[in-house]
């Protein structure tokens, strides 16, 4: 990795997230951490289920390692009062962790 790329990753990305990111809360084992990061739009997915279609909503969130050093999949993220369980970790860099959140819905 070039020196510029490392400097950009380590300095500019956190500053951009602080300036333009959205507020949310990361919760692990009852401990809340206020965070600022990139919050993706909600995507609605329909999957076949034994009794019709199962609806789920997903979104991606980028969490700064300065806010949460070790993101875990058994944690939850609260955005605008709505609790989202972390489904999986998508990408991890020295300064950010990108996760997929998923809220399973009812069958229709």
The major beta sheet can be summarized as:
6 strands, antiparallel, barrel
> How do the SSEs run, as a string of H and E?
HEEEEEEE
Number of strands: 7
Class based on secondary structure composition and strand pairing: alpha+beta
Q: Tally the helices: what do you get? A: 1
Number of individual domains: 1
Q: Kindly identify the CATH topology.
A: Thrombin, subunit H
Radius of gyration equals: 16 Å
N-to-C CA distance: 49 Å
- CATH architectural type: Beta Barrel
Strand content: over 45%
Largest beta sheet: what is the strand line-up?
Answer: 1-2-4-7-6-5
CATH class: Mainly Beta
Helix % is: 10-25%
The overall pLDDT, averaged over residues, is: 85
Low-confidence stretches: none
What does this structure look like?
With 108 residues, the chain is an alpha+beta fold. The chain has a single domain (3-107), classed as Beta Barrel (Thrombin, subunit H). Helices cover 17% and strands 58% of the residues. The chain contains one helix and seven strands; from the N terminus they run αβββββββ. Strands 1-2-4-7-6-5 form a six-stranded antiparallel β-barrel.
Q: Any key phrases for this structure?
A:
alpha+beta; 6-stranded antiparallel barrel; elongated; 108 residues; Thrombin, subunit H
Helix-strand layout with pairing:
Elements lengths: L2 H18 L1 E7 L2 E9 L3 E7 L2 E13 L11 E4 L2 E11 L3 E12 L1
Antiparallel strand pairs: 1-2, 1-5, 2-4, 3-4, 4-7, 5-6, 6-7
What is the structure about, briefly put?
This protein is an alpha+beta fold and 108 residues long. It is 17% helix and 58% strand. It has one domain (3-107): Thrombin, subunit H, CATH 2.40.10.
């Amino acid at each position: 990795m070039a020196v510029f790329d490392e400097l950009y990753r380590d300095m500019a990305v956190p500053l951009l997230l602080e300036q333009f990111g959205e507020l949310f809360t990361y919760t692990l084992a009852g401990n809340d951490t206020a965070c600022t990061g990139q919050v993706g739009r909600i995507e609605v997915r329909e999957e076949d289920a034994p009794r019709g279609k199962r609806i789920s909503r997903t979104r991606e969130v980028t969490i700064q390692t300065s806010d949460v050093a070790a993101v875990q999949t058994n944690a939850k993220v609260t955005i605008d009062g709505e609790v989202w369980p972390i489904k999986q970790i998508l990408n991890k860099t020295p300064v950010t962790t990108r996760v997929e959140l998923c809220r399973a819905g009812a069958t229709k």
